[in-house]
Design a protein that fits this description.
The protein is an alpha/beta fold and 135 residues long. It is 21% helix and 33% strand. The chain has one domain: 2,3-Dihydroxybiphenyl 1,2-Dioxygenase, domain 1, CATH 3.10.180.10. The strands form 2 sheets. Strands 1-4-3-2 form a 4-stranded mixed sheet. It has a 4-stranded mixed sheet with strand order 5-8-7-6, covered by helices on one side.
Length: 135
């Protein structure tokens, strides 16, 4: 079996969140989606499950973190070019996301950060390994 990753995120507005992730370039897999959850596909092995709070709570006894005021994790997505970063960010910002800090340029890697409506933080980056420092 191919190894896959499913990130499960608690969201307050399932449709609004699905629209945001669609704007970023994810696609919805209706096979694993219903009125309580939406399966958003980044690649053939990477999925983000958007779960309403009731559905998310059915998997844990812990309280759901308020990710608008506290960080629960940083999620990173690689793209094919710096231009792809800017396009993805523009689409996400137009869909209601926020950019909490300025773009970072590390020489070999360019990164921008976007937060969704619930404060889940995504770092969108492009890495040019030919520019990676060797010393």
């Amino acid at each position: 079996m191919t190894k896959q990753i499913f990130l499960n995120l608690a969201v307050t507005d399932l449709q609004k969140s699905m629209d945001f992730y669609t704007a970023l370039g994810f696609t919805n897999n209706p096979q694993f989606s219903d009125e309580t959850a939406k399966c958003m596909v980044w690649s053939e092995n990477i999925y983000v499950m958007l779960l309403n709070h009731e559905k998310f709570s059915s998997f844990t006894d812990k309280a759901i973190a308020d990710t608008k005021s506290k960080i629960a994790g940083l999620f990173s997505l690689s793209v094919d070019s710096v231009e792809s970063i800017h396009l993805m960010m523009e689409n996400g910002l137009q869909a209601g996301g926020i950019e909490p800090n300025e773009m970072r340029d590390y020489g070999f890697m360019t990164q921008r950060t976007i937060e969704d409506f619930d404060g889940h933080t995504w770092e969108i980056f492009f890495m040019d390994m030919s520019k990676f420092p060797t010393e």
